[in-house]
Amino acid sequence: MSTQTVQTPGPAASSGAVGDRTPVMTARGLVKRYGHVTAINGCDFDLYPGEVLAVVGDNGAGKSSLIKALTGALTPDAGTVTLDGKPVAFHSPLEARQQGIETVYQTLAVAPALDIASNLFLGREIRREGLLGSLRLLDKKAMRSAARKELNALGIATIQDITQPVETLSGGQRQAVAVARAAMFGSKVVIMDEPTAALGVRETAQVLELIKRISGRGLPVVLISHDMPAVFEVADRIHVHRLGRRAGIVEPKNVSMSDVVSYITGAEEIPGTHDADPDQAAHTSEVAP
Amino acid sequence: MTTTTSSATGTLGRSRADGVRRTFARYPVLGPTAALVLAIIVFSVSTTTFFNIDNFSLIVQQSVVIGTLALGQTLIILTAGIDLANAAIAVFGTLLLTRLTIGGTPSAVAILLGLVACTVVATVSGLLVTRIKLPPFIVTLGMLAVMTAVTNLYSGGTTYPVPDGLLTWLGTSLYLFGRVQFTMGMILAALLFVLMWFVLSKTAWGRHVYAVGNEPEAARLTGIHIDRTLVSVYAVAGVIYGFAAWMALGRTPTADPNAYQTGNLDSITAVVIGGTSLFGGRGGVVGTIIGALIVAILRSGLTQMGIDSNYQNLATGVLVIAAVAFDQATRRRG
Fold first, then answer.
1. Which of A107, A220, A246, B22 is the most buried (most CB within 10 A)?
2. pLDDT (tens digit, 0 to 9) for every residue of chain A, 289 residues total?
3. Cα gap A182→A93, rounded to integer Å
4. What angle do CA A206, B222, A128 make, to 5 degrees?
5. Which helix (H) or strand (E) covers residue A88, if one does?
6. Would an 8 Å CB–CB cutoff place B22 in contact with chain A?
7. What CATH fold (topology level) applies to the domain A1-49+61-97+192-200+221-289?
8. How far is CA B19 from the centre of its chain?
9. Which pLDDT belongs to residue B276?
10. pLDDT recorded at residue A13
């Protein structure tokens, strides 16, 4: 059912790793302008099942705008987005979430005074059955056991007491709570916007471990990050974003970190962008005069 | 489990202080409860008249109206707001109830209309806060002036005697064991407190109230309708102010446009002393009961010790500042 509206496999096919699998989420020719500033300039995007796709790019390259366009936080002026092969148009993050797209933000999006279980289910509380449920009564027991299960499944063993307020946790553990929430409710895609930017080395490692576990479940993860070592540790493919569009896609096993930095700054051209895919080549030549 | 990292990096003393801080941060009622017990012990030892069931009953009766106003205030402060107009709304309610009844409206209908009127006025505050994005302090400061003026215009500046019957029914007493005096107002206030405690701690709405006050951005990102939650909080607070108006008529059977002029500040005092954070998202109605009782006990005890009422005000003021400083210290940032 998911193949009918899928367009060309696009440049992703040239990377080889994903073969002819069907993408979970795609975008073609996205454009977003603010006055005379073009934040997204004909951007394409492909995400395949079970992969970790890193999106890298310089500050101001338009990574955040792309992510916002994919998650409904902004409405693109032009272009199409598909989810499971079907065209979608999200008008708010809530709509995207209802379709199974969860986002983890850099700013730890948790309420510090509330306990872990409450935070995991914030806005999506489990209610009691029957009459008590229609009174919006919470089923705390069910939420706690589900929260416990999810944290265990993700290997977050350092959190013992599910009823402790999130503010008693370390930064890494708090982000783990936010990640667990995304993993719990994200049925299609989990997007992480600089999830480790506020974290220390050890805490970053914990979050990266979580990312691996989530993609290991078959849930694709989009990781927006400036942290090259982190990107190289977890990403299957790297989407290089430059001047408001996808400059190309590389695989960490084929390139070095300094190569990727050169692609980001435009100092070097991404190999294969010219011959492998004419569409992408056209973009690149416009981008790098 | 949470102190392992801090004890590894810091000194043992620091981690213990940290532990104490966390305990208080997690159980905000702890501090106020300790203060309440301490006050009871001090006054029981230092006076002969304080420790006595009639005195306790009187203290609770005196706390009912301010305590109920503080209950509504608690809801609003939990959302990181403040309501300076709560007492003015309730005073308007007392005059509305009284004048309607004097004018021939059945008391039950008058009470119902009073509840509706108080709810509408408080909801207007909520709408101004959410729609025009004005700070609650300014909105309710304006509403305070508006409602004071409306009440004076409506009453012509004069007091009205409250007709006996349903309007003063909350002032009637029950005697438990033929000895312990309970008024209907006390019972109604207790019911309202239990109901709000239940709703805040057991329902999704309650979680959302805390989340909106604690971290609005996180609440928004998880899909909570912040504006809807805020307006509903002001509306519920309005209903509670309506009940406070009815209770006030039971306590003093005169509808006085100049009554409860410091009710707004007294209710904030009770909430803050009860450990609810002015920064929102922390605390609750149990603390407010304790806070209201602490203030009433302080006044009663100091009066019986023969201490001038100016010193009572002074003590209350010091307590408020101490409570907020304490909250600031236990509150963890980031």
1. A246
2. 444 443 444 444 444 445 567 899 999 999 999 888 888 999 999 999 999 999 999 888 888 889 989 988 888 999 999 999 899 998 888 888 889 999 888 776 788 889 999 999 988 888 887 776 677 788 888 888 888 888 888 877 677 788 888 888 888 888 888 888 888 888 899 999 888 887 888 888 888 988 999 998 889 999 999 889 999 999 999 999 998 889 899 999 999 999 999 999 888 888 766 544 444 444 444 444 3
3. 13
4. 105
5. strand A86-88
6. yes
7. Rossmann fold (3.40.50)
8. 30
9. 93
10. 40
Give the domain extent around B220: 28-329
Positions of chain B with pLDDT lower than 50, given as ranges: 1-12, 333-334
Chain B touched by A138 (CB under 8 Å): yes
Tokens 């265990």 correspond to what residue?
A152
* Contact with chain B for residue A127, Cβ under 8 A: yes
- In chain B, the number of structural domains is 1
Q: Which amino acid is at A242?
A: R
Q: Considering the domain boundaries, does residue B4 fall inside one? A: no
Q: What's residue B14's pLDDT?
A: 55
Q: Flag whether B143 is in a domain.
A: yes
DSSP string, B264-323: HHHHHHHHHHTT--TTSSS--HHHHHHHHHHHHHHHHHHHHTT--HHHHHHHHHHHHHHH
**What pLDDT does B263 receive?**
92
**Structure tokens, A157:** 């063993």
A39 membership: H or E segment, kind and range: strand A37-47
Which of A122, A127, A164 is the closest to B219 by Cβ?
A: A122
A201 in B contact zone (CB under 8 Å): no
Q: How far apart are CA B293 and CA B290, in angstroms?
A: 5
- Chain A with chain B: Cβ pairs closer than 8 A: 85
The answer to whether residue B22 sits within a structural domain is no
Domain segments of chain A as ranges: 1-49+61-97+192-200+221-289
Helix, strand, coil percent values for chain A (each to nearest 5): 35, 25, 40
Which residues does chain B have within 8 Å of residue A181's beta carbon, measured at their own beta carbons?
222
- B19 contacts in A (CB within 8 Å)? none
Q: With CB atoms and an 8 Å threshold, state whether A112 touches B207.
A: no
